[in-house]
Design brief:
There is one protein chain. The chain is of the alpha+beta class. It has a single domain, classed as Alpha-Beta Plaits (2-Layer Sandwich). It contains 5 helices and 11 strands, in the order E-E-H-E-E-E-H-H-E-E-H-E-E-H-E-E. A hairpin with an 8-residue loop joins strand 3 and strand 4. The protein is globular. The N and C termini lie close together (11 Å).
């Protein structure tokens, strides 16, 4: 499995209705994409208190072949054509869990990134994060949650889908908050649960 995200930051006065329209008309194109576990079409906007207007899709790829077919095919080229080539961030997933609200369509997402302190033993930091992730994935309102690591920058990423926009605040979930405009999930049912090694 592979976690991937790119962020397209838009001007402060950008009409974010154009992003909603883009997802409404194109989001379904990945609903049956081979090798895709799930894609959350995420947006945050200044009108809701975000520091930026941003379109930031998040992917969990079930296969490297699926990810490659997207990145080197017409799907990602559409992003490049419309917005320029964004930096594609990627992480190695270490855990995935379905939550208590697994059958609900997600309306919100949180992304919490933190760097491992210099000198911290990586295995200990990941083991601690795994235990925390397993507990947090059982929180009311969680649809699904992934924990991943970028070993190049030694960054831990916790990504969670929530059933309602209020659920992250109610749970005290840290990190940036996003609206989920659409969820493509052709391979979600096959994503392995729990610790991934």
């Amino acid at each position: 499995m592979h976690a991937m995200q790119y962020e397209i930051t838009l001007p402060a006065d950008h009409d974010m209705g154009s992003i909603r329209e883009r997802v409404a008309t194109r989001g379904h194109l990945l609903d049956a994409f081979p090798g895709l576990g799930l894609k959350a079409y995420l947006m945050r906007e200044r009108a809701d208190g975000s520091p930026v207007n941003q379109y930031a899709p998040f992917y969990l790829w079930a296969t490297a072949q699926g990810m490659n077919a997207f990145l080197w095919g017409p799907g990602f080229q559409g992003i490049v054509n419309d917005f320029g080539r964004p930096v594609v961030q990627h992480w190695t997933p270490v855990a995935y869990e379905e939550g208590p609200a697994t059958s609900a369509p997600p309306l919100a997402a949180t992304r919490h990134r933190r760097h491992l302190p210099e000198g911290a033993p990586p295995a200990e930091a990941v083991t601690d994060a795994l235990a925390r992730h397993a507990r947090e994935a059982t929180t009311d309102g969680v649809v699904a949650s992934a924990l991943a690591v970028d070993p190049r920058h030694w960054e831990l990423l916790a990504f969670t889908l929530w059933a309602t926009p209020e659920a992250p605040a109610r749970a005290g979930a840290p990190g940036e908050r996003f609206q989920v405009l659409h969820l493509s999930q052709p391979g979600r049912a096959g994503l392995p649960a729990g610790r991934l090694w």
